[in-house]
Amino acid sequence: MAAGGFRAVWRPGPWGRRWAACVGLGLAVLLAACASLPEPPAAAPSTSLTPADVGPAPLARVAAASLPSDAVATGQSGFLLMPEGPTALNARIALIRAARKTVDAQYYILQDDATGLLFLSELLEAARRGVRVRLLVDDLYTAGKDALFAALASQPNFELRLFNPLAVRSGPLAWRLALSLADLRRINRRMHNKLLVADNSVAITGGRNIADEYFMRSDQANFVDMDVLAAGPVVPALSRSFDDYWNSRQVRPIGSLMALPPDDARTRRLLAERCEDRRDLLPEAATDVMGHPPVSAQLAAGRLLLTPGDGRVVVDIPQKVTFDDPEASFADSVSQQTVAMLYGARREVLMVSPYFVPGDAGLALLQQQAARGVQVLVFTNSLDATDETLVYAGYARYRLAMLRAGVKIYELGSRLVPRDRRFGEFRHSSARLHAKVMLVDRERVFVGSMNLDGRSARLNTEVGVIVDSAALAAQFQALVPVRELGAYELRLRPGTESPQWIEHEEGGGQRVLDEEPGDNPLSRMRDWLLLKLLPEDLL
């Protein structure tokens, strides 16, 4: 599953199970009015630690040593791109292990698979050595995790809160949603943020949730994604954004939704069985595709290999999910601030988004920029790579108009990326794009959780950083060359109004496809019908 409220609710299955599900959902609708949340209890507020509180902790010392004096004097921060899954996961674990005072973690999805249990076990170990752990998770995909989450929250120094919780705590996602239909407007708004901050000194944000498929651990499909590690002034700003969510009325302590178990032998046995044997790191090369050694090695050396830049945190307020006016939701949002980067473009714009639905206004902006001579490139999923065919169908409605305007479009191919190997070892799995990055004039970079679609713009909350740094932009540009071997290049078929998919091969050859990779007539008809019924912002 990937970003997007209700995108992953429906999955085709055997007809018997489908009819059973329909009957169950029908009964659930009749009962929906019974399921609602009581008024939230007052939760004790808490805030991130000040530098004085953190003191001379190891991470604070490393962060200070990693920024050159001229960057410190001009208020710059330092950044490290992490395109490879194992590097990105091990970096998170390294920061948690190095923390001495506090760890704040905020995620849309946190699965109880091998990756999620490794992450939780490290947070638990940090809490047991006296580190204050605050874990904030969106509630949409937490079904089946309540017992584990409650056990963690029963431990000293470990606090766990849920964003925008559903009233129904058990059962499959479709059942929980159906029983919450009386509160549909609220539960359709989700916290899509991804953030980890250790000792208010070093942070990681970007596109990755905490689940196997984001770190090259799935046997079926793995995501090509991007995170950025940061130190300097942007880190306290990210911590303040975490505090705003943690203390908001949209968040509830898990103990207000269910009884926490006592911290006794039974609870500790459950935690031992679920978490404490899950602490093996992923195999990691001596250097990643960027040429950087593991973050753990950099921390041990006392200096992170950061690229300086003027960084600015962009984050939605948690109250965004309460706004009924779409324009109020968009105003000053992460989407609005990121799209504003396009207006100042002089030469080139590169937009990377797994779910790309520009809407009429976005299409007009792209056409306007292309007409001004700005080279506009869009990098998104192909139909055979996407995990959200309905969203792809929404994007496809704008594709011909973009091509006619001169916008260059590249679609990641599920079978093309694994042979490239710059983003990791896919083994027998297929590839999907999940990174959310924008480059303007090879000088300004956005990395964060925001998709370029209406759901991110007006329904979900997001977080990211905008960095003015030609050096950082060049590093990302080197990862995504114009003729990407892992993607199809789209162009208009000569003399027609239909696209072709160009597969570039090693050695300079190419293969031209007139049929869309991954096309399925039945799926296409289903998505066409759904697009007639659903507003575009719900995709």
From TrEMBL:
Example GO BP: cardiolipin biosynthetic process
PROSITE patterns to which the protein is assigned, alphabetical: PLD (PS50035), PROKAR_LIPOPROTEIN (PS51257)
Listed Pfam families: PLDc_2 (PF13091)
A GO MF label: phosphatidyltransferase activity
Domain PLD phosphodiesterase: 187-214, 429-456
PANTHER family: CARDIOLIPIN SYNTHASE, CARDIOLIPIN SYNTHASE C
Protein name: PLD phosphodiesterase domain-containing protein
Organism: Pseudacidovorax intermedius
